[in-house]
Amino acid sequence: MAERSGMTALINYVERLINDEANAYHSTQEIQDALDQNRREARYMSLVPLQSIAEGGVVSYVTYVPLEPETMRFWEDTALLLDNDYATLTPSSSDWMVGRWTFATEPDQPVKILGYYYDPFGAAYDLLMVRASSLAENINSFSSQEGSVSYVTKRQEVQSMANKMLAQAWSRGLRTSRIMRSDVNKLW
Predict the structure, then answer these.
(1) How many whole angstroms separate alpha carbon 26 and alpha carbon 118?
(2) Spatial contact of 7 and 76, defined as CB atoms under 8 Å apart
(3) Burial class (CB in 10 A: 0-12, 13-18, 19+), 89
(4) For 2, what's the count of Cα atoms within 13 Å in the CB-facing half-sphere?
(5) 0.85 exceeded by the pTM?
(6) What is the pLDDT of residues 15-52, one digit of tens each?
(7) How crowded is the C-beta side of 173, counted as CA atoms within 13 Å?
(8) Backbone torsions φ then ψ of 43, nearest 5 degrees
(9) Considering Cα of 116, then 119, then 120, then 122, what sign does the dihedral take?
(10) Residues near 96 by Cβ (< 8 Å), separated by ≥ 6?
(11) For the chain, how far is it from start to end, CA to CA, in angstroms?
(12) In whole angstroms, what is the distance from residue 138 CA to residue 148 CA?
């Protein structure tokens, strides 16, 4: 299966994260597969409008971000932006890696998105662990020969890189939610 057109920027980003821009360890297909294992779907999710104030105090809403911009980043750039009537919108500027879209004129609200966003750090962790495993096999097969220390060191470096990626990855299936108790949390 070939690399999907909307995945190029994401694949390139993961290649840089795992220090494999020449694809010496993982093909672009393997990287795309790892990204697909670390994705979430947004189905008609409403985006949050950001207020823009022009000269004279005129307020408009032309820039939109996801509900949770810190975690809902790294979008496949084939996602669809839709207006109130589910008509496709074309932004004047898009930052798919950050998740920020700006329109020339204010669209009918709510603006919704239909597509996938990814965890490149989770994908990088998975790929680095595969690489560390292959290095472990080399250590076992060359353990009595000269040069095995370099395999051990290389494996430790790869595992260290993997741990750094894991620290930035989504919570591996765990999700947090804000819960508000109506008997104690009162807004006044």
Answers:
(1) 18
(2) yes
(3) middle
(4) 3
(5) no
(6) 999 999 999 999 999 999 999 999 999 999 999 999 99
(7) 1
(8) -110, 105
(9) negative
(10) 9, 74, 75, 76, 77, 79
(11) 57
(12) 8
